[in-house]
Design a protein that fits this description.
Layout lengths: L1 H11 L5 H10 L4 H53 L3 H13 L1
């Protein structure tokens, strides 16, 4: 974070001479951990939002899978009722029974 602040100060204080800029740049130490930490802190909200979005997509996918399973069970029960009925009255009674479940 200090590195970014130094860059901003150097950019803001444009009236400095080249010798002072070179002196400031040669005296500063390059610290990659502070740069990575600054990036990590800057992108932490975006990472959290991305994780929450993936969790929501996962929940929707699981819900759709459950609905598809329920629909498959319902359609198999309807097919068994239609194929197993010997008369229209028996078919109607099986349909009534399926609607109660």
């Amino acid at each position: 974070m200090r590195f970014f602040l130094q860059c901003i100060q150097l950019r803001y204080n444009g009236s400095r001479t080249d010798t002072l800029r070179r002196a400031d740049m040669s005296n500063s130490t390059f610290d990659p951990t502070s740069i990575f930490e600054a990036y990590r802190n800057a992108f932490a909200p975006a990472l959290k939002a991305q994780q929450e979005g993936i969790k929501a997509i996962d929940r929707v996918g699981r819900y759709q899978y459950a609905v598809a399973g329920d629909y498959m069970e319902w359609s198999l029960a309807q097919a068994k009722a239609a194929l197993g009925a010997q008369s229209p009255a028996e078919f109607a009674s099986k349909q009534i029974e399926l609607t109660r479940h």
